[in-house]
Specification:
The chain is 28% helix and 39% strand. With 118 residues, the chain is α+β, with helices and mostly antiparallel strands.
């Protein structure tokens, strides 16, 4: 019975998507593609963190893993947040634009809180 359950679980297990980078090409100009990427990410609730001409990065608050949420609830780590981060690089060459998208995963940051002393 255990063997059948294990085989069924292995069969039903979905393969995970491979982590990036993801690379795409387009005949559109880098500026056109950048405009579309920025517009879509802002619509999805992301914030533009850094913006160079052909390299830029977006983030938005992510869901804290269960263990992290326990620490937050107990106030053991005040100011700790998680962000979903994506970076984009555009390269124009021979009338084509290469778009590289790199998921940076969930990045945990700690915001320092300073107490003012009188």
């Amino acid at each position: 019975m255990l063997a059948l359950t294990t085989l069924a679980a292995a069969r039903d297990k979905k393969p995970k998507a491979q982590p990036g980078p993801y690379v795409f090409t387009s005949k559109a100009s880098a500026q056109t593609i950048k405009g579309l990427i920025v517009q879509e990410n802002l619509r999805e609730g992301y914030t533009l963190d850094s913006d160079d001409k052909l390299q830029f990065r977006f983030s938005k608050p992510g869901q804290m893993p269960l263990l992290g949420a326990v620490f937050m609830a107990s106030s053991a780590c005040p100011g700790m947040t998680t962000k979903k981060v994506w970076s984009y690089t555009l390269v124009e060459l021979n009338g084509m634009t290469k778009v590289t998208v790199q998921p940076c995963g969930n990045i945990r940051t700690i915001t320092a809180r300073r107490k003012l002393m009188n």
